[in-house]
Amino acid sequence: MTEQNGQPVEEFATVQAIFVRHRNCLLLRADFSPIFVDYYLNLMQHNNRNAEAEDTMFKRILAFFTLHLVSRPWQEYHAWTFNIKSPMLANYFVSGSSLTEDVVGRVFTEGVREPEKNMLFAQNLRTGKEPQTSVINIAGEDVIGWVEEFYRQSEQRQARAFELEGDTYALLTAQPGADHDWLSELTAQDILEIAEKEETKLLETRKFRFRCGCTVEKILPTLRAMKQDFADLLSEQGYLEASCPRCGAKYKVTADMLG
């Protein structure tokens, strides 16, 4: 248990998967305070910082991505990369799996290729299966619209995304025989009152935390293979600064560590 503003915060974000009877829809909902706290702690630990607008967008993407994981089978690994031209040029990367109960990600603002349109690259990996990749154009500048468009194009079903009170987010996905008219007209207030207005059943809960698992030992083999490319820099300053591509963690690698 950690604390935020003097209040206890759970170490995990617990996602509830709730079936809405007679509407044939799956509601996924969680308070993401624990994940957001760990995300900021990771930034602070490695002396990283994002602009406020980029942070806000990243947290929304991370929340809806985690809810999406719970809409999928346990054994899958997913990754989303948003290549965004507007409102600000950036790449937003998130990945995770229910098997490890981890989600991770980072914002890239340097060396980003500017696309003609905002794009989403979505990948689904499953042991023993060929990777599945979807590439879709996403209109507008709102994460909620992007997520709903992803479901329409890639998942080929209707979904509604909601940002609720505090750090709580919800995703409602259509199942076979769904009441699409009802789903289309839902408001955030309807989600807050859904237990009173609809017949619901809690199907399962899954717990997630923001965690990468990277270490300097894991990146050394790659750096050793490229040692000659860094020879001048190593000779000049005596070390390299390596950055984890998944979470942005920074590691100082000296010549003796490369062997």
How far apart are the termini? 41 Å
Number of helices: 9
Query: How much helix is in the residues?
Result: 25-40%
The residue-averaged pLDDT reads 91
Task: Please explain how this structure is put together.
The chain is α+β, with helices and mostly antiparallel strands and 259 residues long. Helix content is 32%, strand content 36%. The protein has nine helices and 14 strands. It has a ten-stranded mixed beta sheet with strand order 9-8-5-6-7-12-3-4-11-10. The chain has a two-stranded antiparallel ribbon with strand order 1-2. A two-stranded antiparallel ribbon has the order 13-14. A hairpin with a 4-residue loop joins strand 6 and strand 7. The chain starts with a strand and ends with a helix. The mean pLDDT is 91.
Features:
259 residues; alpha+beta; ten-stranded mixed sheet; two-stranded antiparallel ribbon; 9 helices; 32% helix
Could you give the topology of this structure?
Blueprint: E1 2-4, E2 7-9, E3 13-20, E4 25-31, H1 33-45, H2 52-71, E5 76-84, E6 90-97, E7 102-108, E8 119-126, E9 132-137, H3 143-155, E10 159-163, E11 168-174, H4 180-185, H5 188-192, H6 194-197, E12 200-210, H7 216-225, H8 231-237, E13 239-243, E14 250-254, H9 255-258
Parallel strand pairs: 7-12
Antiparallel strand pairs: 1-2, 3-4, 3-12, 4-11, 5-6, 5-8, 6-7, 8-9, 10-11, 13-14
